[in-house]
Amino acid sequence: MSTPLSFYNSLTRQKEVFTPIHEGYVGLYVCGPTVYSDVHLGNVRTFTSFDIIYRYLMHKGYKVRYVRNITDVGHLTDEGEDKMSKGARIAKLEPMEVAQKYTVGFHDMMREFNNLPPNIEPRATGHIIEQIEMVQQILANGLAYEANGSVYFDVAAYNEKHGNAYGTLSGRKIDELMAESRELKAQSDKKSPSDFAIWMKATEDHILRWNSPWGEGFPGWHLECSAMSTKYLGEEFDIHGGGNDLKFPHHENEIAQNAGSCGCGGARAWLHTNMLLMNGKKMSKSDGNTITPQQLFTGDSPHVTDSFSPMNLRFFMLQTHYRSQMDLTDDALQAGKKGFTRLMEAWSNLQGLEGLGGAQNGTVGKELTEGLAAAYAEMDDDFNTPKALARVFELVSRINALKGGQLSLKEVSKEILEEFKKGLGTLLFDVFGLRDEGEAAGASGETLSKVMDLVLDLRAQARAEKNWGMSDKLRDALNDAGIVVKDGKDGAEWTTS
Ligand code: AMP
Ligand code: ZN
Fold first, then answer.
1. What angle do CA 430, 431, 436 make, to 5 degrees?
2. What architecture (CATH level 2) is domain 6-273?
3. What is the pLDDT of residues 347-406, one digit of tens each?
4. For residue 31, which ligand has an atom nearest its CA?
5. The CATH number of the domain covering residues in 278-431
């Protein structure tokens, strides 16, 4: 019997049993990357957390529409420059070239970490019309005003109409915001410092610009997610996710824009991942406190003493709950690497266990079944991967004991053993999204050796027929592929160069 899925909703600040709006279906929106530089490991942490959530929802039998956007306009630096334009200016490229380059890099990295692609990946620049329409709706509802070619969201008017709703998600009070924002750069066109731009007039040197009813400009960063989530998931949908650094102002403003345009709630549940730290500080592109995944793969960084594969890192991430901070240290990474190896060894041991004919299910069989059910139950409790992993490691001990003979296979019925293998495989590979890297390397080695047997047979046949042209062609092609063939008295042998 599976337990119901519940998770923590940041909007209501409590754990809730999940009931989708449409039975059997889930609409999931996650804020995607701003594609102006390489994705860092903090970003990967957030996207991997949501990948596991996506995978688990599918495992529970839901048909999920997972939308994750690409931010390629509107996200400004603290100095007020568009991050895309800044990236383009520095690299002397078209902003679209910058966006394309880092989008491709982002996708490659997602594949390395075995993160599944979303069902829809909309780009902000591909949805300017929808964003303009949303600004028009908000204006028509009297919750925004135009000033000098820009349009600002009127927080006070919104609060009056929507029962002081602004700040519900982030817990920020409007008075505090006023005090804080006064210290920021004065934006004189705003009626109040807490108002925010939903459309911005483009200055003369601003590259990314579109025609609008208010002149040439570009959308405010928060607007894209309101417009695209509404377009693809509807005015009300199930889950919205992102890193908790986006709660304010990004998500708070998204909620205000959704309510301010269609009067609708947007997402019912908000899920926020906690930050990845390095040396106790947030990993952030803008602060330069980052380590690239590539540096970890090769070990080429002063922060680490070893190399870590994508699956070492994925395993490392699974060890921390998505709502807790995760600190990247060399020691913790080493421990994760060992843990992953131990897990994969146990998995391989399990594959080697054959059920005994006539074995009756006893205590051991029951422990396997119950232990696995307990691991799944931890996932039902707010996607608790560290606790689920702890349950899995209790099972690892049993698997190894069965292999070592300290526990007896006589106590596990054949059917239960097969069911257990299947259930654990589903949890490790389909839900956690791990990949058995050793197995993949072993499989490709085996395949290569079979292919090489065939190629060397063909080459021997060509030589026997004095078909020197074919024989040379095969040798050259193998050389190009980094394979050296040597003829000895026992026939041809090959090595990789
Ligand atoms: P960005 O590309 O900066 O817009 O961020 C993409 C996603 O990564 C957002 O959901 C951020 O909240 C998240 N993110 C950024 N930095 C970190 C970090 N250090 N740890 C975890 N998530 C992060
Ligand atoms: Zn967003």
1. 55
2. 3-Layer(aba) Sandwich (3.40)
3. 999 999 999 988 899 999 999 999 999 999 999 999 999 999 999 999 999 999 999 999
4. 2
5. 1.10.730.10
